[in-house]
Amino acid sequence: GARQGLALAASVVRRRQGEAPGDVGLELDEQEAGRVLAVRPGTPGAKAGVAVGDLVVGVDGVPNGTLSGDGVDALISNHPPGTPLKLTVLRGGQPREVPLIAGARGQ
Predict the structure, then answer these.
(1) FRET pair for 16, CA 20 to 30 Å: which of 22, 65, 74, 94?
(2) What does each C-alpha distance from 52 to 2, 17, 37, 74, 76 come to in angstroms?
C-alpha cells in the first residue's frame, strides 16, 4: 500500500545522481521474487553468508512484497558502494537478518 510506497521511495533516493550503483553479488530469480540463484564468490553477499536458495524478502526493512528479482536488485543498487544495508532472507522458512556493505557493480 501507500506505506510500502513511502518506504520504497525513501530507499530509492539514497543513491545520489552520479553515484555508482551498489551490488552484493547475488543473481536473483526474475520469476520468483528475490530467490537467490547464485552468489558470486568473494562478494559482500558471499562474505555475509547468503546462500543459493535463500529468499530475499526485504532490504533495509522494506519488504519486497511482489517485486521481481529485478525490483529487489534495484533496492540493493540504490546503496552506493561502501554503504551498509541489511537483507532479510528466508532460509528453510526462518527469517534471518544479513548485514553487509554494498560493493561496486561488476566486482
Answers:
(1) 65
(2) 32, 32, 5, 19, 17
Q: Which amino acid is at 40?
A: R
Cα–Cα distance measured from residue 91 to residue 16, given in angstroms and rounded to the nearest whole number = 33
Distance, in Å, from the CA atom of 86 to the CA atom of 88, rounded to the nearest integer, reads 7
Q: β-strand 26-28 against 55-59: which pairing, if any?
A: unpaired
Burial class, 103, CB count within 10 angstroms (exposed 0-12 / middle 13-18 / buried 19+): buried
Question: What is the number of residues in the chain?
Answer: 107
Question: How does pLDDT run across 32-74, given as a tens digit for each residue?
Answer: 778 999 999 999 999 999 999 999 988 888 877 655 556 788 8
56 neighbors 34 (Cβ within 8 angstroms): yes
